[in-house]
Design a protein that fits this description.
Layout: H1 2-27, E1 33-34, E2 39-41, E3 47-51, E4 57-62, E5 68-73, E6 78-80, E7 85-91, E8 99-105, E9 108-109, E10 113-116, H2 122-134, E11 147-148, E12 151-152, E13 164-166, E14 180-181, E15 195-196, H3 197-213, H4 215-220, H5 234-247, E16 257-261, E17 279-283, H6 285-302, H7 312-329, H8 352-366, H9 369-372, H10 390-399, H11 401-404, H12 411-429, H13 444-462, H14 465-478, H15 503-507, H16 551-554, H17 558-575
Parallel strand pairs: 2-10, 13-17
Antiparallel strand pairs: 1-3, 3-7, 4-5, 4-8, 6-7, 8-9, 8-10, 11-12, 13-14, 15-16, 16-17
Helix pairs in contact: 2-17, 3-5, 3-6, 3-17, 6-7, 6-8, 7-8, 8-10, 10-12, 12-13, 12-14, 13-14, 13-17, 14-17
Length: about 575
Amino acid sequence: METKKFMVRKSLLACCLFLFWNVWCLNAQNNFVRVNQVGYYANAPKVAILANMEAVDYEIRDVATGDVVYRGSVGEGSLWNQSNETLQIVDFSDFKKPGKYYLKSLTERSYSFEIKDSALFNQLSVWSLKAFYLWRSSTEIKSEYATFGNTDYARSMGHPDNVVYIHTSAATEKRHVESEVSAPKGWYDAGDYNLYVVNAGISFHSLALAYEMYPEYYKNLKLNIPESGNGVPDILNEMKWELDWLFNMQDEDGSVYTKLSSLKFSKMVMPDQDKADRYMIGKSTPAALDFAAIMAMASRIYAEYDSVFPGLSQQARKAAEKAWAWALKNPNVEYRNPKDVHTGEYGDNDFSDEFFWAASELLITTGDKKYYDNLKFFQKYETPEWRYVNSLGIMSMALHKDQLEKIVKVDQIESRFRSLSENIYKQYAYSPSRVPIRKFEWGSNGVIAQNGVILGLAYYLTKENRYRDGMLSSFDYLMGTNPTDYCFVTRFGSRYPKNLHDRRCFSDGIDEPLPGYLVGGANSDNAADCGKRVYPSSQPARCYLDKICSYSTNEIALNWNAPFALLVGMVENTFGK
């Protein structure tokens, strides 16, 4: 009998511990009232999210006085299975008075936020682009260009890359094993110090699209980088740093090296302390095609600035056409890491999407119908990622459809882009959290940024407000209306990531993280990178950890920051006038 009582008590204790653990996991990172932690434009939709509150009303209060300045009611909630929370939408779009506020409901209050008429996200726009300057290889980063607030992020030059060796996997008769080439400049790929052509592709596209959509905005956006004041918009000056490196990645026959990398990832040291030999590694069809697409975009964008960069536009066009010709002759060259190489692979075995993107950009730039004839439209178009880039081609052609009408029928382009936009829009519209994403996996924040960009482009082309709202909601999520309690961009918002999986942040001796970087975000498929039971929740949308060890959620990368920078530009150009 005593044994039975003991077993019951033990069972009850276990249940209590289980319930306590689940409640702790639910609430450990739970901000009950979620807002864009930077703020809202006065003339824009304004949405906050309440989680697990069963609220009926809310108040907006002035930060300085605590006075109630606005009241409203809250609708019924909906369960979001990605976070296992019941979410209620607070829409206070009618409140437009500039000032600094917080939102309160029941006993819970939000972080403070600002309402402004103009220039609300100007610094965010600047630093999401200056992140690329801070990523520069082969140069000293100077204090005069790298000080945010009172924090100086200057560092010594790393990786001059004036002596790069040809790896066995990339050797030819003219460039034999261990022969030397020079390939300086470029941007570090992520939290490591290697440079990859494939990931450069999707990243360059976002920045090029930003300039093509809003040239006047970017002509006036001053980044304060070494090239500022040379008569070229700073965004294009920064992109040229990457472009100069990319020219060096093409061999004489038109082929393109997949990456410039050491044989293994460096230790967590500053760039100037990484002394490992660097190599040109592998060649591949995707690298050649992504390179062709980049160069085609560069050719048309820099043509306007031929007086500052003489011959650059023509050089880029020739490089693009040469890479395209090589890819046609070598359509199935796959890249896989050789046995002695242990850095990012960016492997792929389906190149139809790369052919589509390269042909799209070459068609726009050259006006040659032969590239249109190479476009196989019967493909699946989804959120662009480094591995899936055909949607980049559809986006570019949709933006340039007026000029393409003189060459080809644009019905297919319009219908494909509309289908892509509707697919993304439905993800937003049907989500209780109003965020366009199907699954929280590696780089979820990059996916949300890319989807926000697609919706922003759809609004730019159609002026349908529903697309605009989806774009803005994607942005708000990244800035704080998410279940993790973070604004996901460093040095912005009330609570931002501070412990990036990044070699510079780990080893620079500075408490504050480098500014303007979007972290990877929630990832329910994360590896046990920080050990077991460290993540505060197993719920997909809440599985995020602000620790250096969390490369699966807290790393940074070019292909996440670039669409985010474009998304900020879209918000600024839509509401900030």
